[in-house]
Amino acid sequence: MDTSLHIALCDSDPGDRKQMERLLSRESDKRVNTTGGFYVDTFGGVEAIINSPVLYDVYFLDSTDPVCNSYGIAEAIRKKGILSPIVYCISSIDYRQSGPEFPGSIYMDKPIKVAELSAVLDEIIRNKKENYIPTIELRNQYETFYVEAKNILYFVGNGYSVDVHMTDGTIRQATSFVDSLWRDLYSFPTFQIINPTTIINTAYIAGLGPLSVMMRDSTKHTVKTKYFAVIKKKLSKYRG
């Protein structure tokens, strides 16, 4: 798999931001012919990085914004379902004391030491290679969020809006036509469209009826005739 890194960098100090860009560029050059180079997007403000639709492999943060510092950015990132490592680059604020630690938190004191940065990047690349879990990118007018396939029961569409029914009982909204979403789910074979408005996760089928499926949340959905044989085949292969 591709182990190049897409990196988000947010630093309130212009000088420190430029220095980190230089350090990351040098680290990228070291790896360009082995694990792959780095693609770095730099943010000077909080809103831009929080609202970015891009899923980054790692976030380097040192925002001292009084309204939303690095810990606030990390909290917003985690709420979007992004589990990428967050590297707190510590200057005037010790983010170790900011609140409960999010999984995947890494702390580096400024000035950043080259050897420490190199070791952190090597570990992130190694973890990406060993623990990569593909996620489904979904968005609406307010946010972009990322969900693992195993956390979705089914999608139900209504025009240009889709209700995403989650395994924990929550429902989230995404903006898409069902047929467009179905094309986007091609690399997730556990999903199957069953009628013009519904895509199900076949791993969570509780039972089959005459041209219908019962899902684990006890909801019943009609299956078009042309999809029923596919459903039965997938049921035996992907049922958890």
Explain this structure.
Helices cover 30% and strands 30% of the residues. By secondary structure, the protein is α/β, with parallel strands linked by helices. The strands form four sheets. It has a five-stranded parallel β-sheet with strand order 2-1-3-4-5, sandwiched between helices. The longest helix has 18 residues. The mean pLDDT is 93.
DSSP strand (E) fraction?
25-35%
Radius of gyration: 21 Å
Overall geometry:
elongated
How many helices does DSSP assign?
Answer: 6
Number of strands: 15
What level of helicity do the residues show? 25-40%
- Give the oligomeric state of the chains in this entry, treating copies of one chain as homo and distinct chains as hetero: single chain
> Strand count, sense and closure of the main sheet?
5 strands, parallel
How is the largest sheet built, in terms of strand order?
2-1-3-4-5
Topology pattern, helix = H, strand = E = EHEHEHEEHEEEEEHEEEEEH
Distance between the termini: 26 Å
Structural class: alpha/beta
Round the mean pLDDT to the nearest integer and report it: 93
User: Low-confidence spans: pLDDT under 50, at least 5 residues?
Assistant: none
